[in-house]
């Protein structure tokens, strides 16, 4: 059985790997069929390889700090509050993670502060809804 401590550790690895752009460590936290939703831009990405490519192709220069992690008692879901720094700008976000039976991330929903149009050049990776 996956414990809340296990889920917290996976999420912390996910964020620390994303922060330093360690894509191998990042990939190790993800299920093969991971589903990523970004409601503000109405984008959805299906599958680990597409999601990895989406992150690899995102511009560098952002830093992320985890402010709070809350895991459910059943060992299946985690909510995270983060603070992103891009240059002098700071942005808060809320993220919801769902895990598969092996303790890997199977679903991610990212809520950013407000709706925005997605950057150009990633249409080959996402579905719009």
In short:
By secondary structure, the chain is α+β, with helices and mostly antiparallel strands. 26% of the residues lie in helices and 41% in strands.
* Low-confidence blocks of residues: none
Q: How are the strands of the biggest sheet laid out side by side? A: 3-4-5-6-1-2-7
Largest sheet: 7 strands, mixed
Element string (H = helix, E = strand): HHEEHEEEEE
Proportion of strand residues: 35-45%
Determine Rg (CA atoms, Å): 14 Å
Distance between the termini: 35 Å
* DSSP, total strands: 7
- The helix content, as a percent range, equals 25-40%
Quaternary structure classification: single chain
What does this structure look like?
The protein has 129 residues and is of the alpha+beta class. It is 26% helix and 41% strand. It has three helices and seven strands, in the order H-H-E-E-H-E-E-E-E-E. The protein has helices at 4-20, 23-28, 48-57; strands spanning 30-38, 43-46, 62-71, 77-86, 89-99, 105-111, 127-128. It has a seven-stranded mixed sheet with strand order 3-4-5-6-1-2-7. Strand 1 (30-38) and strand 2 form a beta hairpin. The termini are far apart. The relative contact order is 0.24. The mean pLDDT is 89.
SSE blueprint and pairings:
Blueprint: H1 4-20, H2 23-28, E1 30-38, E2 43-46, H3 48-57, E3 62-71, E4 77-86, E5 89-99, E6 105-111, E7 127-128
List keywords for this structure.
129 residues, alpha+beta, 7-stranded mixed β-sheet, 3 helices, 26% helix, 41% strand, globular
